[in-house]
Design brief:
Rossmann fold, extended, 5-stranded parallel sheet, Arc Repressor Mutant, subunit A, alpha/beta, binds adenosine-5'-triphosphate, about 450 residues, disordered N terminus, binds magnesium ion, about 10% strand, two-stranded antiparallel ribbon, 3 domains
Length: about 450
């Protein structure tokens, strides 16, 4: 019996998810045109339908007093916050909504427990004075009091409240999931019109909810996934780089907007690499931001070189950067390790082997490097260990003396060579030693 019920319940949920798309198309054709136009202008195609669906859902709460709950699920940077922001702006621009709706925004990273969350709800609803020093028996009592207090102004109808829970999954870690339970419970009952909108990047978010919480959720989910093709991605780059029509200098903006930058082969390659790495707009923005920040009065157009430099800065290897700050002795040890890696085909080495390799170099080839005492070399080696450029093979309890402990170099051949090229005033014999095939 119980199983049949669960299955029926699941089927109902699935049906709800399927109807999402049909409802979306209905709302796309049936809803006020002015809103669609603005929303359309702001969002690219695959977010549009979702945006209109969410707008319609929240409008039903705000105007008709229908309670609702919905989850927006998508990876980081997929535009969840942007989507909701856009929808809320649209919603608040409706005259019948403006004065009526109350918005409460919570974030799982800030409201780390339900007590803090409740305080924040009270603050955002401007009910601190009403609550005063009252002591409540339970969370539910407190929330009910708050929602009741909202009714006082006009007894005939209560004001709809939109609860936005960013990082929704973090609220599931609160004790007994009290906040989620109570909010979703209110959204299911006819007491006060409430819409609960959760934003999360966890696909499995429903698995985190307790049974009693899950059963109170409407199971409406909006999934945001980037299905952009490379062509569309380049269009977005073009759009993001263009100056708006109301730019004060039309001649300049005309020239700027007609730039053929995106057609350049190198630029296309950079964009493709970025696109293949991650399609999210956050990383694209940081790339374009770095490129645009190189524009100045003396060079007022965006050039291919700016994007190449931005790409270089963004993909700069943090480990290779650490190498620039090393002393010559530490660098020599890295080279010795590189040679050991070449000789022994990547097998782990110990300090003694590195020291021997280094001594061989000093005796045979070097004129510019001092002879260092062993403890000094050991100190340098330990510094490399601290920087995690070398790591012990066995990180467990080690009974071997430090000198004989097996280590691995955490750098690639290319990283070492690149760092050497850029190292300021690197002695020539050290460079040659690094270039030579075998130590
Ligand atoms: N479809 C899109 N078109 C244009 N820009 C977008 C799009 N999606 C996201 N962005 C941009 O990407 C950036 C990140 O988006 P947003 O903050 O909405 O992501 P998020 O899903 O909320 O991420 P997080 O999970 O980290 O909160 C924003 O600057 C936003 O303007
Ligand atoms: Mg966000």
């Amino acid at each position: 019996m119980g199983q049949t019920q669960t299955r029926q319940h699941k089927r109902r949920n699935c049906q709800k998810r399927v109807t999402l798309s049909s409802r979306t198309s209905r709302s796309a054709s049936g809803h006020t045109n002015a809103h669609e136009v603005t929303v359309r202008a702001r969002l690219e195609t695959h977010h549009r339908a979702v945006c209109l669906h969410l707008l319609e859902l929240l409008r039903r709460t705000a105007v008709h007093g229908e309670s609702n709950s919905v989850l927006i699920v998508g990876p980081r940077g997929s535009g969840k916050t942007m989507l909701l922001g856009c929808v809320l702006r649209e919603l608040m621009s409706l005259r019948e909504v403006q004065k009526n709706v109350l918005l409460v925004e919570l974030n799982g990273l800030l409201q780390t427990d339900d007590k803090i969350a409740l305080k924040e709800i009270t603050r955002q609803l401007h009910l601190e004075n009403v609550v005063g020093d009252k002591v409540f028996g339970s969370f539910a009592e407190n929330l009910a009091f708050l929602l009741e207090a909202l009714k006082k102004g006009d007894k005939s109808s209560s004001r709809p409240v939109l609860f936005v829970l960013d990082e929704f999954d973090l609220f599931a870690h609160h004790k007994n999931q009290t906040l989620l339970y109570n909010l979703l419970d209110v959204s299911q009952s006819a007491q006060t019109p409430v819409a609960v909108v959760g934003l999360t990047c966890r696909l499995d978010v429903l698995e985190l909810l307790e049974k009693r919480v899950k059963s109170r959720f409407s199971h409406r989910q909006i999934h945001l996934f980037s299905s952009l093709s490379f062509g569309q991605y380049v269009d977005v780059v073009r759009a993001q780089l263009s100056l708006p029509p109301d730019f004060p200098d039309p001649k300049f903006s005309d020239e700027w907007n007609h730039s053929k930058l995106c057609e350049d082969k190198t630029v296309e390659e950079i964009l493709r690499r970025n696109f293949n790495g991650s399609k999210d707009f956050r990383s694209l923005h940081s790339l374009l931001f770095l490129a645009v920040s190189r524009v100045s009065v003396s060079h007022s157009t965006l050039r291919e070189a700016d994007l190449i430099e931005a790409c270089r800065l963004i993909s700069a290897d943090s480990k290779a950067n650490v190498l620039h700050g090393l002393s010559i002795l530490e660098l020599c040890l890295i080279i010795a390790m590189k040679h050991l890696n070449d000789t022994y085909d990547g097998e782990p080495f110990n300090f003694q082997m590195v020291h021997n390799e280094f001594k061989k170099f000093i005796q045979r080839k070097s004129h510019s490097i001092h002879k260092f005492e062993k403890p000094v070399v050991m100190k340098a080696f330990e510094h490399l260990l601290q920087l995690e450029l070398v790591r012990p093979v066995d990180s467990g309890v080690c009974k071997v003396q430090r000198e004989y402990q097996l280590m691995r170099l955490m750098l690639e051949h290319g990283q070492v060579m690149e760092a050497l090229q850029k190292y300021p005033q690197c002695p020539t014999d050290v460079k040659q030693w690094a270039l030579s095939a075998f130590g």
